[in-house]
Amino acid sequence: MLTTKTVILKMDCSDPDLLDRTVRTYTEGMNYVSAIVYNFGKPKGSAALQKIVYPALRGQIGLKSQMSCNVVRQVTGTYRTLQAQVRAKKTGWQQITYAPTSMTFSFGRDFSLDGDKIGLTTLEGRKKYRFFRYPHMERYLDGTWKFGASKLVKHKDGTYYFHLCCERETETREVAESSTFMGVDVGQNFLAVASTTDKKCRFFCGGKAKDLRNIYSTMRKRLQSKGTRSAKKMLKHLSGRERRLMTDMNHRVSKEIVSFAVQNRVDVIGLEDLSGIRDRPDAPKKRRYAHHSWAFFELQSFIEYKAREKGISTVYVDPAYTSQTCPRCNHISKNNRNGRSFVCECCGHSLHADLIGARNIESRARTYRYTLEVQGCSQPPGRELST
């Protein structure tokens, strides 16, 4: 199975003017191609689109050859995503405008790595820039990982970082041949609750994420109500801090979950397929912020790639009624759950509601394994991961 990892390299650029001009010109090229695709009214294949826009990208805008190819592929991919959202009736057809904050590079064509230096193709040819090589990066730069399409990103403070995409094949046990499973129920009271086939369980990060979101939500409301110059300055200072703290928390929790799986020799981790959950209109107004700021996809993505590095597979199961189903008698009822408490109205089985969810997810992952075995399949198709 292919494992993908993005390593963020902080660059040491004493004179970033050339990179600024290169990124701005690259963005100008993307906006030019975006306008053409928008006028078509639908996405066009990258090969056909390249024949149309390549002369202007090279001559009129002044991009290098590989830059022009990257522009076409990136814009084409963006509009294909937009088309999928239009078909799902989540948005309408619109022209996409890009900001000069990032630029895509292809390994071996317009970027290379040599020790602690990275070679980038700019408007003035290939230039080498030093990056800070920290110890945690060494395992990704030792030659065992292959490099793919990566991005040069400019942060708000003007500092440039290179998001290096690394990938390699890792051996994971086939789902149909697995014997030990673990279900992970992600939530808001506890970030995650895990339960294995032999009923070993663990609760992760109880209430900390919820408290963090409540603190920052209250702080923003208070500053926004004041509306003073100093309040706006503080809002700008706090911008993104909650997101960074939540990402760090998800990283730590996902690492603990995978470590717990390794300790219990788990072959497959079961997760809920929560795609489309934000589209549900039944969230109460008071809980709407907590519902929409819940970073469940990020946590699941971290669990998935960390598990893959350890040779553990992940499968996504139907989340319907996982917190209302009794794992003992399979009775389903809303009355079974009352807040964090679960008591089956049929057989009287009682347990923590989140742990009930984790056990039902583990059971469905096991059932999926038997389904694959009956159908003669070995491995389910994996969900694509964003890094």
UniProtKB/TrEMBL annotation:
Keyword line: DNA recombination, DNA-binding, Transposition
GO-annotated molecular function: DNA binding
Domain Probable transposase IS891/IS1136/IS1341: 163-277
Family matches, as InterPro entries: Cas12f1-like_TNB, RNA-guided_DNA_endo/Transpos, Transposase
Protein name per UniProt: Transposase
GO biological process: DNA recombination; transposition
Family the entry assigns: In the N-terminal section; belongs to the transposase 2 family.
Residue span, Cas12f1-like TNB domain: 296-361
Biological classification of the source: Archaea, Methanobacteriati, Methanobacteriota, Stenosarchaea group, Methanomicrobia
